[in-house]
Amino acid sequence: MDPSSRPSLIERLTALLLREPKDREQLVALLHGAFEHHLMDADALSIIEGALSVADRAVRDIMVPRAQMDVVDIKDAPEQIIDVVLEAAHSRFPAIGESKDDVLGILLAKDLLRYCAGKEFDLRDTLRPAIFVPESKRLNVLLREFRASRNHMAIVVDEYGGVAGLVTIEDVLEQIVGDIEDEYDFDETEDNIVRDNTGRYRVKAVTEIADFNAAFDTGFPDKHFDTVGGLVIHHLGRLPKRNEVLTIEGLRMQVLRADSRRVHTLLVDPQKDLPLSTPAAGDE
């Protein structure tokens, strides 16, 4: 065949797009056809499918549940609040009164810099207004509202007006583009197990059980799972939620990063003074 007679990339893409889909399934099939014909890469296909899926999902599907919300108490001293912020390592916190149903506003961690600098500080005056959304709100609508209002966090309420959880703009965007790393995440070039300045360890969920056992002097088997993320899922019998805390054989583990598909990072506190050991090359 004469190479000049072959359809160009634009012509092939146009031919695919002109087959107008009649429903969502046909549209997805069309997109997969474009991928199979090398008209788009896997990342582009994943993002488009994610964008389509947010219209079918509600806030309740991705919110951080009430029990796992990190909050600050309006009655606490600034020193206590700073401890909470350092422990949770978030940038925004609901500030509550009598209970988690009494959300008074949103504290931005950076606003505590005034207190740390010795300047006049009043927590109530520092709070930003809290935005409340129902559990049933669709994610595509919520994302549009986040963009319009420039808010990054919303408090989720149930049908009775009680607080059911919270949701952030990052939670919504991760449904489209996949997990988003932040300043507290590992650099891909770093080791899987890194000790922080508190004596605890940030552990990538992909860390192999053998390496984890060597570092923490544990004896977890690797018959049913290969990684520490698999260990956590096996222990719970389900995917954990972000900030969920569990203890396995004396090790306190907090899930720092997780999404609806997998675990990413754990904060491990051995609850005893264990030096971080690294197996020598060639060790069994």
Give your account of this protein's structure.
This protein has 284 residues and is an alpha+beta fold. The protein has helices at residues 9-17, 24-36, 42-53, 78-88, 113-116, 123-126, 139-149, 169-177, 209-216, 228-236, and strands at residues 64-65, 72-73, 92-96, 103-108, 132-134, 153-157, 163-168, 193-195, 201-204, 245-248, 251-258, 263-269. The strands form 3 sheets. The chain has a 5-stranded antiparallel β-sheet, covered by helices on one side. A 4-stranded mixed β-sheet has the order 1-7-6-5. Strand 10 (245-248) and strand 11 (251-258) form a beta hairpin. The chain starts with 8 loop residues before the first helix and ends in a 15-residue tail after the last strand. Mean pLDDT is 80; it is low at 272-284.
Class derived from helix and strand content: alpha+beta
Question: What is the β-strand count?
Answer: 12
Give the number of helices. 10
Strand order of the largest sheet: 8-9-12-11-10
Mean pLDDT: 80
> What radius of gyration results from the CA coordinates?
23 Å
How far is the N terminus from the C terminus?
58 Å
- Which outline best applies? globular
Largest sheet data: 5 strands, antiparallel
Helical content (DSSP H or I, runs of 4+): 25-40%
Query: How do the helices and strands follow one another from N- to C-terminus?
Result: HHHEEHEEHHEHEEHEEHHEEE
Strand portion, in percent? Answer: 15-25%
- Which blocks of ≥5 consecutive residues have pLDDT under 50? 272-284
